[in-house]
């Protein structure tokens, strides 16, 4: 039996559950907004404690990463992502979740060949392209400021 692209799409429609895009987008918006609101509340709290803007921003990032890693460790971030979808991909918490989940999956293989080798399986491309993009943007900024 030869499977054509049309036949494959038809088979896929029969098997995959229907998704309500409007509801999914609304949930992602609310969950992502809540994560960002928590981040802003943390930042405001650190500023109210007398930290400078730079220090408060750093502690906000540290707190969000730590909370994301802990929630991932207890399996709660996955449950949140099941409902919030793309809303949980807010860059800092989503990145921490990606690294933490890779480490958790690889822990049975040992510290070096498991966690050490596989922790950046998902996050590695993000780091690579992020660093590459920052170098390119830096060069463009440098060249523009020459004139």
Helicity, in percent?
A: over 70%
**Distance N terminus to C terminus?**
65 Å
* Largest pleated sheet: none
Number of helices: 7
Low-confidence stretches: none
Strand content: under 5%
Give, in order, the helices and strands: HHHHHHH
SS elements, strand count: 0
Oligomer: single chain
Rg over CA atoms: 20 Å
Mean pLDDT: 87
**Alpha-beta content class:** mainly alpha
Tertiary shape: extended
Your description of this structure?
- It is a single chain.
- By secondary structure, the chain is mostly helical.
- 79% of the residues lie in helices and 0% in strands.
- It has seven helices and no strands.
- The protein has helices spanning 5-15, 21-48, 53-73, 76-84, 91-106, 111-118, 124-146.
- α2 (21-48) packs across α3 (53-73) and α3 (53-73) runs parallel beside α5 (91-106).
- It is extended and about 65 Å long.
- The model has no long low-confidence stretch (mean pLDDT 87).
